Amino acid sequence: MRKWHLGHGLLALALVVSAVTSADATTLRRMGLDDLARTNEQAVVGRVIDVNSYWNADGSFILSDVTVAVDRVIKGNPNEREITVTLMGGTVGETTTMIVAGAELAVGREYILFLNTEDLPAAPRVTTVRDHCQGTFEVVRDAKGDRALSQARNHPLLTDDFGLVEPPGGKDGLPLDDIIREVGRLARTR
Asked: Would you state the pLDDT for residue 62?
């Protein structure tokens, strides 16, 4: 039987993004591309090549190290070719820790990731997707063209200062070239 561990993750999520938690949902305040570009150290386009879940240093929480092959650096070190992103949550043996509205990264998938150096439970100064689902855009290629879909489109968001509630691109996402160009521009004008 699989065990689920939520306690520390929900607390950390609430502290990191000022989430409002109810019995059946976690609600985050909407972040626009300008917020994501301004408040994160890095933004990259890359493909996940490996995921390794493990217990943190003090054995109190499951973390996952996600190896990302970087295709393009939008903001940050332009020479970055591979990066390890540490996320809260994962599965070790029979135990799974889930983060409500957390970034979900799968091997073989391509993403735009907004990354920052943060302290996670018993894992100081790691590169992570601080803004969880809002800092994760899945790249899809279909008949509509290459697009980036925010993972936040599947979660309720509180309105931002401009009264907007949908994540950037809404349900249909943004053309990939447009989001790369806009985030690059925003990062340069910071």
From this structure: 97
Residues 127, 65: contact at Cβ < 8 Å?
no
* CATH architecture, domain defined by 3-188: Beta Barrel (2.40)
**Which one-letter DSSP state was computed for residue 179?**
H
How does pLDDT run across 12-28, given as a tens digit for each residue?
443 343 333 333 456 78
Question: What are 87's two structure tokens?
Answer: 């996320």
Is residue 143 exposed (0-12), middle (13-18) or buried (19+ Cβ within 10 Å)?
Answer: exposed
Q: What is the DSSP string of 54-118?
A: EE-TTSSSEEEEEEEEEEEEEES-TT--EEEEEEE-EEETTEEE--TT-----TT-EEEEEEEEE
Determine contact, residues 87/111, Cβ cutoff 8 Å.
Answer: no
Domain residue limits, the chain: 3-188
